[in-house]
Amino acid sequence: MALTIHTTRTLAAGYTQQQLYDELKAALQVAGFSAPIDENGSPGTTMDQVYSITYNAAAKGTVFFRIQIATSFLITPNLFDTYNSTTNTGTNTSITPLTYAPLNTQQLNIITINNPEMRGLALVTGSTELGFLGVIRPATKVAEWDEALWTFAFIPGVTTGKLRTVAAPVCPPIASSLTCNFGFNQDGTLLTTPSAITGKSDIFPFGILVALGAATAASYAGAFSADLALVQGSGRIQGDTFDNQWIYLGRNIAHRFAI
């Protein structure tokens, strides 16, 4: 089991666009990202920072993660399989990523997560969960997912919200008809209240990554290690720790995640 390193950071209410930009940049580097390979914009315009992550030497073994911070403080991430720092553009953008809307009238809490399968930030504005901002790569994948052709890395997608559906820059053939949506295999509607047997928040490890099609269609794509799990998280908020090892990352409808 890989070690997950996490810290909690705060940005006091009343922050500016520049302060939000600087704090996200610092927090992402604590979460294991290298320094940005590209930065653009200035206060009063959309500001962005771009990071590269290399997983292996395959043609698509490096991905590029960009976050943009608007004057309204809206945070928009994207994932690319190539990036041109001269034109400030990437290719094969991820599909409908989740966006994050912190309120600068409230304190922003930032939980940094540094794990090989999940690298990024869990964001909470006031007491409202915004979701996970970062890049996800399950521990294993099917052999047919050839990284000479397709990247194997994901960001949360807007289709079903926080940290469940993820969007790949380019869908491989096994998912081309499935709108590039991926998610966990388990029914999150059953993971709401603590266990009726133990009274505790049960842990359901080894999440399966599936390509999601119609309601009756799904294709196995890979799996997470025991580091990332679904959990009964009613009453919890992002950043909570329990059982001396789990960090609660947030939820999507009734899907609740811990690492």
Describe this structure in words.
The chain is mostly beta strands. The chain has one domain (about 5-259). Helix content is about 5%, strand content about 40%. The chain is built from 1 helix and 21 strands. The protein has one helix spanning about 15-30; strands spanning about 5-10, 40, 45-55, 60-70, 75-80, 80-85, 90, 110-115, 120-125, 130-135, 140, 155, 165, 180-185, 205, 210, 220-225, 230, 240, 245-250, 255-259. It has a 6-stranded antiparallel sheet with strand order 11-17-16-14-13-12, with no helix packed on it. It has a 5-stranded antiparallel sheet with strand order 15-18-21-20-19, with no helix packed on it. Strands 1-8-9-10 form a 4-stranded antiparallel sheet, covered by helices on one side. A hairpin with a 6-residue loop joins strand 2 and strand 3 (about 45-55).
